[in-house]
Amino acid sequence: MWYEKRGDSIILYIKAQPNSSRSKIAGVYGDALKINIKAPAVEGAANKELIKFLSKSFKVPKSQIAFVSGETSKRKAIKLPMNEKIEEFLESMNEG
Questions:
Q1: Which CATH class is domain 3-95?
Q2: Of 24, 20, 14, residue with least CA distance to 41
Q3: ∠ CA 35-81-51 to the nearest 5 degrees?
Q4: In the chain, N or C terminus with fewer CB closer than 10 Å?
């Protein structure tokens, strides 16, 4: 499973693809959500862009998004507070 609900939070298991033409959610690949990131994987630039992208996509303040693991890996676990936008996203992904 590419996500895990924990109380009022959710952990997303993400496979980051840096150096993409634009930041976007590419879909579910195996047990991870693949996200294309515009920034290169240099000096944390891709991580910063990923946090910014998730913040915008799910209307969550950047300060409430945290790495659980994988900060230096392509596979990451990121914790966000659960909200309506994330619920809608999970439903839309589970339908497809």
A1: alpha beta
A2: 20
A3: 35
A4: C
